[in-house]
Amino acid sequence: MVSATCLAGIYMEHPIPGALVFHRGPKTPFDEPTLGATSSRLAALFPGEGEFHRGTESEAYGQLYSAGALENPSPLTGRLELYPTWMTNTGEFNSQNLYVMNLKIGETTSLEYDQYWNTNIYKPSAPSQGLNPYLWEGMVGFRFKDVYKDNDGLNITVLQRVLLPTYYAERDAGLIAGWESEFLLKKDLNKVLTFVVEEEPFLLGYRRSGYNGSPNPILTNLFVLELDFNITKRLTATFPIQLITNRYRPYSPGTPFNDAWQNFVQLWPSINYQLIDNLSVGIYWLSDSFVKPNFSGFTPANAFRNGALQFNTTVSF
For residue 111, what is the domain's CATH number? Predict the structure, then answer.
């Protein structure tokens, strides 16, 4: 593992387990079938392409199905996300990847499995390293859509998931399992703007208080405020601000973040384009933290200098 003061996730080859957000990825759960395909729309950190997240296509689909014009869609859908990532501070180029399987078991309920994995593309310090693929985190649980929904464009989705020890660094550190509760609120302000709030606490269970000179986390919390801009029906820009807070266990006096809190404030803007029903592309920029871990000062220069540029391709099945 490397210093906990580094931006975890994409900036750390072996991040402190549970330390940051990128292991959960830009979320694009495919919940609804569309006309002619079983793709869906971005529904979490980056919801919707144009009008899609408001359900216009899925509502039309439902009307046609009710009238007997369409066959019953498969309850099992999948999604593959590829995120080739260039880390501007080191010149490293890798890919953060995700595969999701979603089984619809009710009108608004589904069983979901998310598996993240990473590959190397080019590492200046080890140019002959090869792809070196490895599993990152895996999560399984339930998605409850439209727990609350009104006619003014407000809806709430809840996820309850178990974090599995599929990532070798977390297994080595002693991870048994974790529990995630995610609460997602979306509000359509008008036809162009959507306001998103996300609260996502993670409880983490480790067999030991620390490993390899670093304390293990007991809690990770993600809080996001976001504005989505529906530029056209297929072109969407997103602007999220996210606060990530980690609480570490007592481990060894003098160890960084021993029995302490760690905080990150990041920007993760993106622009996405839906090429066809089941294929979209996008460009993301993920900053480093704008604050010191204990909120004792601001670090805007580092936030911009140590950012990462990501190129996304998402395919649904």
Answer: 2.40.160.40
